[in-house]
Amino acid sequence: MMSLSSGSRSLRSNQASPSTGPSGGSPVLELNVGGELYTTTVGTLRKLPGSKLAEMFSSSAKAYTDAEGRFFIDRPGTYFGPILDYLRSDRLPTHHIPEVYREAQFYEIKPLVKLLEDTPQIFGEQVARRQFLLRVPGYSENLELMVRLARAEAVAARSSAVLVCAVRTEEDAVLCADALRILEAEKRSVVKFGPWKAAPQVKDLLDCVKMDITAQGYQVHYEQFSERTLRTKHLGYFYTFVFIWW
Questions:
Q1: CA-CA distance, 52 to 105, in Å (whole number)?
Q2: What tens digit of pLDDT does each residue of 99-139 get?
Q3: Residue 30 main-chain phi, psi, to 5 deg
Q4: Quick one: 77 exposed, middle or buried, by C-beta within 10 A (0-12, 13-18, 19+)?
Q5: What is the 3-state secondary structure (H, E, C) of 180-195?
Q6: Is the pLDDT of residue 13 over 60?
Q7: CA dihedral sign of residues 125, 131, 133, 134
Q8: Nearest-CA neighbor of 43 among 57, 20, 19, 26?
Q9: How many whole angstroms separate alpha carbon 15 and alpha carbon 64?
């Protein structure tokens, strides 16, 4: 697919009026999706009534066009091709599954969304990993806190270290309570995860934390906390996440 040449493009809101296809078939139109050009028919875009894509090209819809008169959709164009392939021939994508899944959700292509949710990539993320993280109290809030702490220590530094306590069971939480009090007395900030009621172990949680922070664009790794501040029996609950800035 071609990309539009660089430079600003003026948009204007027009009534959708695709050209009539050959032999009285479904009208053919050209699309500019985020700079990627596609040619298809109105029938293909309206194949699934009730989808957002069908609504965009209904007879009463307002449509934006680019400077060349092509219908414009302000979405990532790279992943629109697999959406069209599915509408044309029910063919499932084999590459960029998470990205196509996100676009299928946006366009409300519900049959494709359901099929993609059965793929290993989406099933593993939505059903396995996400369901586990929902059982970890305050997981999302803790991620935000870790990033805030790391950024606060980043001034004139190449890296920042954030101390994390991970306890899987209530018994573990009791055992490391004294260590948390020691660190609190030293005014050390500690982000505490757990306990949780799910099978995954502490390393699984730490890998999830690393994965989700990395997905935000940060370069981060974790290592076992090794300072002598704590007794040896407590060290297994504490980890240092190191954010690399440059």
A1: 9
A2: 999 999 999 999 999 999 999 989 988 878 989 999 999 99
A3: -105, 140
A4: buried
A5: HHHHHHCCCCEEEECC
A6: no
A7: positive
A8: 26
A9: 8
Report residue 12: phi and psi, to 5°.
Answer: -140, 145
pLDDT digits (tens, 9 = 90+) for 182-204: 898 999 999 999 999 999 999 99
Angle at 47 between CA 46 and CA 49, to 5 degrees: 70
Domains of the chain (ranges; CATH) run: 12-118 (3.30.710.10), 139-244 (no CATH)
Backbone angles phi, psi at 243, to 5 degrees: -95, 125
DSSP string, 148-208: HHHHHT-TT-SEEEEEEEE--SHHHHHHTHHHHHHHHHTT--EEEE---SSS--HHHHHHH
**pLDDT value, residue 120:** 92
For tokens 């009285």, what's the residue?
24
Give the pLDDT mean for 10-35.
Answer: 66
CB atoms within 10 A of CB 182: 14
Cα separation of 186 and 188, whole Å? Answer: 5
In 3D, which of 228, 117, 134, 148 has the Cα closest to residue 182? Answer: 228
pTM exceeds 0.85, yes or no:
no
